Amino acid sequence: MKKWVPIASGLLAGFIAATISFADFSSKTDTQTASAGNKSDAEKVYVPFGKKDDYYLFASGGHSGQMFIYGVPSMRKIRTIPVFSQDSATGYGFDEHSKKLMGGYTWGDLHHPAFSEKNGDYDGKWMFATDVGNSRAAVVDLKTFTTKDIIKVPNTAGPHCAAFVTENTEYMFLPTRFAVPLGQKYESLDDYSSKYRGVMSAVTFDEKKVKLNIAYQVALPPWSYDLSDAGKKGSKDWAVMTTYNTEEATTTMEVNASQADRDYIVLFNWKELEKMVKEGKYEDVGGQKMIFPEKQKGGIYLVPVAKSPHGVDVTPDGNYFIASGKLAPAMTVFSFEKAFKAVENKEFAGERNGIPILKYESVMEREVNPENALGPLHTQFDDKGMAYTTMFISSEIVKWDPNTGKTLDRVPVQYSPGHSVAAEGDTVAPDGKWIIALNKIAKDTYLSVGPSHPESMQLIDLSGEKMKVVQSAPVDPEPHYAQMIKADKIKTIEVYQKDSKNKDAVYNQKDTKIVRKGNEVHVYGIAMRSRFIFDAKSKRPDVIEVNEGDHVFIHLTNIDFDEDITHGFAINDYDLNMEVQPGQTNTLEFTADKAGTFPLYCTNFCSALHQEMNGYFLVKPK
Ligand code: RUQ
Ligand code: CUA
């Protein structure tokens, strides 16, 4: 293996400089703006009124805890889906169902959205995501664009690597970004190497019950696990993930976690791990089935890679996995076939923590080092199997051929792209056509909004001989990753169907009622254009009266079975708001701890008489 040190230390300086100084960027601005500004480019992205976009883009909202939906090629933002953070626009995190899903947390850090897959193709049914901030995983239903389940992932601190699903959505693998002791209990950092672990969770999704589950966990060495990808076709039983801090540093990571010449890619066979679990080869750790690789041998290998790798991406044909080193100016192409042979022939170069290290030379196919391209992070693919790697430091996307290593084209972007996303890019058959650079820095691109600028997404046309930036759209923090799916694969519903089994639902005005049980008050109400009916028999059907200290449940059903007629329900000064979409039933639960008179009203504009859609919430003092 080559010595990376001299280049890498220079790059480390470059990496740091790139994040604090933009002087070197200014010179690029004119040419780039010019290249993205002519009429024929505008026509390519113009989607006239009445016409719809060809693709949906699901972009991670980073520490907003949300997911942003855009149309491509127009790059118009269509929707925000709250996943890990409260959102008063939809009442997410306020109503009972979503409050429970959020598990007492108020925010999340959503990094990598991933569609469910069937035979390696996006099936358009579900979208998964993980939360680095509070260690959770979530699933979004693409029939309604709403979050349906969230689970907490124990023994894991920040599942950054995920979510990447296997070919038939058998698993998502969620390794920890930060090593912690099992159970996250207190252990001195002096005992880091012996007491801390980098736990990976194998998460399954039960489509019928709409539930995420942890099938088993693996107690990997106490390193940071960064990105992962699942194998495809011939490599479909395997998955890969990058690691850094194999130095096991416990402080000043910026320097100490970049010491060693090499880190590793963890290569594992999930079918073998699954078998181990079936055979009872695990230990119970706080209710989780934990595989300890130093005791239960097999299924997991380490592949040496240039220091501090970030992205690792599997080619659509499933033949290669490509690692990008943020501190080394190279992409390394590894061959699955070679790796399988090396495993079979035990071509090992020692082990760490009981995990065999495959010989670098045995697995490496080629090192690719485009001239002056710096800071390779992530790779996407087109319909011809060509690779597109984002260069964080030299602010460009480089197109190259994984089979030869030859550089084919380069295009500058503004600036510092993290990921890029290609149309149907993570499937076994990407579409080509479009790739979008997800830029961390958009300095000078949009109208100023003060010292902190928006991030940007730049749409790049792949149809011509040369890549061409044709559109740019601002995006809220922070576009870590995105996936792009053909629009016709997504089948949304128009209204929620009546659910006769739902005890909270009321579909007839005459069935509305307010029921008191001790100090519990249950309201079974209706929202319709343009009134609330909480109790049709009452003198004032749109008024709720309770006593101070009562525990109140407001169940509200929207009986306008009419597309897009959504109602909101807010109680003034009670810090409460929820949404009821057409046909939907939703519940607010709270304690009436403030006595007084509080108007309630519909927050979602629903008719010409929306402004009249209100009533009172009266709380009689004790
Ligand atoms: S990361 S900029 Cu959170 Cu995917 Cu690489
Ligand atoms: Cu209902 Cu506005």
TrEMBL record:
Coiled coil: none annotated. This is Cytochrome oxidase subunit II copper A binding domain-containing protein. It comes from Neobacillus kokaensis. The keyword Glycoprotein does not apply. It is found in: Periplasm. Keywords: Copper, Metal-binding, Periplasm, Signal. It comes from the Bacteria. Residues 1-23 form the signal peptide. Pfam families: Cupredoxin_1, nos_propeller. Residues 518-622 form the Cytochrome oxidase subunit II copper A binding domain. PROSITE patterns: COX2_CUA. CDD domains: N2OR_C.
